[in-house]
Amino acid sequence: MLPFLGMLQLTIRELRAKKVIWGLFLISSLVLLVVTFALNLDVVDGTLASARLFGAETSGGVDLQNIVFAVQSIVAGTAYWLGILLALFASGPIFTTLLTKGHIDLLLSKPISRTRLLTGHVGGVWLAMFGLCIYLLGGIWLIMSIKSEVWNPRFLFSILIVLSMFGVMYGVIVAIGAFTRSTALSLIVTYGLIITSLALAGVQQITEQLGAVSKAVFLVLYHTLPNFAEVTTIVSKLSQGDPVANWYPFISSLLFGAACYLIGGIQFNRRDF
Asked: Name one GO cellular component term (predicted).
């Protein structure tokens, strides 16, 4: 257990040393400041009398809860996309740095198994991103709740979805990096899968236009690859307090991520560094 915790601590220290944590922390702080000063709500008897967001003023007479939930949905969706893309770009090089000659040799000389070494690294990255997710999304939730007096605790569940999907896509970096040691290729494949998910999200409309063979191929891709774009709907519904009717895109993405970590772990354990 101690070697695992040591590797976890080493990863967080490396993220801090490379200014990854500080950079994402500063961006998150800037977003919180912008939301704090850009959002002004005038509430009268639980009804929104007027609202000002980024200089644009909205007249009153609108149910306050609907406005707050709508804004939180937009914020959660934006944080889901931009937050994960930035986090992947910032943390992606950390894994390939782990595999560089000299660095990996030193770590493998320690009394720690390769499995614990890898899980400690992944756990450190996850833990750092979890803290940043709580800081950003939790901060936005707290600011909006205090200003509007509308408390929507289900919004906080979106933090778990954002972190989980970051973990899924980081699994791609681990798998590709374990085979190639290439940061560039790892990020290209990861971002490529995210872009591909935009097409996969239209599975019903697209498959109606395809022939039998093309439809079968497309469905295989849909059920195999991560449905990153489609999970945006789940994030939006959770942030608005609405029930989620279809969890399949999220569950299938988790399975894809688990497969990536398994493949990456096998290659990491068998590779001769």
From this structure: plasma membrane
Mean pLDDT of 180-186: 94
Q: Does the predicted model carry a pTM greater than 0.85?
A: yes
Q: At what angle do helices 248-270 and 157-180 cross, to 10 degrees?
A: 30
165/59: higher pLDDT: 165
Residues 229 and 255: beta-carbon distance below 8 Å? no
Which residues make beta-bridge pairs with 63?
47
Q: Which pLDDT belongs to residue 252?
A: 96
Q: Burial level of 89, CB count in 10 A (0-12/13-18/19+)?
A: middle
The candidate with the shortest Cα–Cα distance to 187, out of 96, 118, 112, 61, is 96
Contact 193, 225 (CB under 8 A): yes
Determine the pLDDT at residue 56: 43
What's the mean per-residue pLDDT of the chain?
85
CA distance 236 to 16: 31
- Measure Cα distances from 237 to 29, 74, 79, 80, 94 in Å: 25, 11, 14, 13, 33
Cα separation, 37 vs 210, whole angstroms? 50
For 251-262, the pLDDT digits (tens) are 999 999 999 999
Cα separation values, 193 from 119, 147, 209, 264, Å: 23, 38, 22, 17
Dihedral angle sign, alpha carbons of residues 67, 83, 85, 252:
negative
Mean pLDDT value of segment 73-85 = 88
Which of 217, 261, 260, 235 has its CA nearest to residue 69?
235
- Classify residue 245 by its DSSP letter: S
